[in-house]
Amino acid sequence: MFHGFIPHIMGTRFDILIIHSDFTLLNRIWPVIINEIEHLDKILNRFDPKSEVSRLNSLKSQSPIPISTELEEILQLCQYYYERTFHLFDITMKDFSLIKFGNRHIFLPALGPTLDFGGFAKGYALKKIKEFIEQENINHAFVNFGNSSILGMGHHPYGDSWRVSFLNPYNQSLLNEFNLKNTTLSTSGNTLQYTGHIMNPLTGLFNEQRKASSIISTDPLEAEILSTVWMIANKEQQQLLTENFKDIQATLYDL
Known about the structure:
alpha+beta, 7-stranded antiparallel β-sheet, 14 strands, 28% strand
């Protein structure tokens, strides 16, 4: 068993457990994983003044701004999920349609929205890591981004899955237990210390309810996106979302 961790990246801690008999392989791929996460952080972390998204947010102008190829691909993904979630997922938290991009350029109106990949970046990174691990023919791994975005591949050495507990952040009672096997768990919600941080882009209102959500999906990115969306979607919207995302398991909890 190989354990690698980064104490602070993308605003949280990153841990990975990999089960494999070839320790040379494990030592070779760990630096690759670190480089990928740090690379994505340098693109998507709006709190880092040196990141690409931070630079864009500070350079709003009347003319198009050059962007990297990967950021353009990420924006295309965000546009796809913006439409597929009925505009509940919106990295601008205002109106995604206000930004224009293409040919490795973006136009951000001077008085328009800023870009925030907080409900996207960890899921995107998990998906990239999952694809890389699979390419290396590694079948069993556990990846944890701050206890809120968790990927379980294969199973624990002493079980048939990776068991994860989801605790109530207000009193630490057990909300649910999950057996992850080639699936991702993403959770979102309010806590006693951190509440009112999830905004509905359609209304401009923050969710301050004592609630939490969990999403199980084979797609780490969709799990990440939908765990936040589920906190702000009403029952009618949740029904429509389950029609668009048929393979997820979504739960909303009263805390």
